[in-house]
Amino acid sequence: MAPITVKKICCIGAGYVGGPTCAVIAVKCPNIQVTIVDLNQARIDAWNSDNLPIYEPGLDEVVKSARGKNLFFSTDVDKGILEADLIFVSVNTPTKKSGIGAGFAADLKFLQLATRRIAEVATSSKIVVEKSTVPCRTADAMRTILEANSKPGCHFDILSNPEFLAEGTAIADLFKPDRVLIGSLQTEQGKDACEALKNVYANWVPKEQILTVGLWSSELSKLAANAMLAQRISSVNALSAICEATGANIDEVAYAVGKDTRVGSKFLKASVGFGGSCFQKDILNLVYLSESLHLPEVAKYWRAVVEMNEHQKERFARKVVDTLFNTITGKKIAILGWAFKKDTGDTRESPSITIANHFLTEKARITVYDPQVTQDQIWLDLTNYGDIPADPIKEHLTICQSAEEACANAEAIVVCTEWDEFKQLDWKKIYAKCPRPAFVFDGRLMLNRKELTDIGFQVITIGTGDRV
Ligand code: UDX
Ligand code: ADP
């Protein structure tokens, strides 16, 4: 049998991964019809409007150029499944909150429901591609579900095709990926399915950058890539603590270390801690996997990357309290940035949430400003996070429309996200409205420390010892 030519793609899950990925496929493959389906009506309505449900630089242009031509958004999941030759499954796989593996293992209920739906609805053979980040061997479980529930004459090939895009740069990453990874069973049929998907990407990605491997290697590679990226950040953050204690400067250390071509310069920026939907989840998955494989030392090793991240957030929050003369009760503290990184409105696992919760526990008065995150999202993040009830949160925290408004009369300004606009603020004007001493805590090492110090601020940054 020869590989099929893919003409119709359905993507189940119109989220941060499925939406941008399949919108780019539509733009790059005008001969393929791409339908992105989701159970969430509001999300689909937003994808069909001028106000897309996610903020991602360049995404509006991509969606506008293909929507209504060969790119469609719909809640009709069954129709999408019926029509497609290839189906991406790109649903959410959060960390389990209860039951076996709670706090570590991925909750695969959404993935399994979507898979079951494919089996129940499909009347012809399909290539089913797992796009969501999943624990190793999930493809096997999907295959069992599909085979146990399929109609006679329907054959399903399973591929793993993890997505490596980073939020904030998703469109650039998708246009020019470092690599595309496709995992398949090493049977004739598996290889044909792999070739069919490879031909889709070959519309814009050089063939030598499309790597084809076994299913489990593909699944593990995604977890491994995220674990190793996160490990770099935890390593540099661990060093930042040493810098603060010794007077060394973490940016200088990271620069010197990164100049070694064996290390490389990327992902060595010390910070208040990493966030995002992937790093913590994937490492915890790896920890769970290691434990299930009776490899406790391996589990302990990866767990330390997450523990260091928790420590970094906690350390930063504590530094604010210590510097404000050991109490922040009743003091006004401005948090600049709520998203987990710049150029996204996504707040999943954002360090700001942990830090704000710490300040709330200390009964500070908090103002928050983020250029992209909605007010509802901020309230949701805080009420879902800890055990502080909604009323005291609303009493102590105000969401502002600008950085200036958030910073007015603040005893401490705490930068948690590296939004470019924070560099351009009128810091003199802000200083004029702050009580003295006026503190800025730079959790992203992004502000011009000298300029702020010259204005009169006391500037405290992660990874530098001396308070200027
Ligand atoms: C990550 C991976 O980069 C991507 O390949 C994968 O597909 C999904 O997970 P993402 O979480 O979107 O992407 O963003 P990323 O740029 O990796 O940043 C993750 C977190 O690490 C952010 O909170 C960011 O601020 C932080 N970070 C990143 C640092 O603190 N220092 C760095 O040097 C780099
Ligand atoms: P990610 O960051 O992995 O893309 P998101 O949470 O942003 O995760 O998106 C996942 C999407 O998948 C959500 O919009 C959710 O409504 C959708 N989804 C989950 N289960 C199903 C399902 N069985 N059928 C269709 N859509 C689903």
TrEMBL record:
One of its GO terms (cellular component) is nucleus. Pathway: Nucleotide-sugar biosynthesis; UDP-alpha-D-glucuronate biosynthesis; UDP-alpha-D-glucuronate from UDP-alpha-D-glucose: step 1/1. NAD(+) binds at residues 13-18, 38, 43, 91-95, 132-133, 167, 278-281, 348. InterPro entries: 6-PGluconate_DH-like_C_sf, NAD(P)-bd_dom_sf, UDP-Glc/GDP-Man, UDP-Glc/GDP-Man_DH_C, UDP-Glc/GDP-Man_DH_C_sf, UDP-Glc/GDP-Man_DH_dimer, UDP-Glc/GDP-Man_DH_N, UDPglc_DH_euk. Keywords: NAD, Oxidoreductase. GO terms for molecular function: NAD binding; UDP-glucose 6-dehydrogenase activity. Gene3D superfamilies: Cytochrome c1, transmembrane anchor, C-terminal, NAD(P)-binding Rossmann-like Domain. The keyword Thylakoid does not apply. It catalyses: UDP-alpha-D-glucose + 2 NAD(+) + H2O = UDP-alpha-D-glucuronate + 2 NADH + 3 H(+). Pfam families: UDPG_MGDP_dh, UDPG_MGDP_dh_C, UDPG_MGDP_dh_N. Substrate binds at residues 163-167, 222-226, 262, 269-275, 340-341, 444. One of its GO terms (biological process) is UDP-glucuronate biosynthetic process. Belongs to the UDP-glucose/GDP-mannose dehydrogenase family. This is UDP-glucose 6-dehydrogenase. It comes from Kwoniella heveanensis BCC8398.
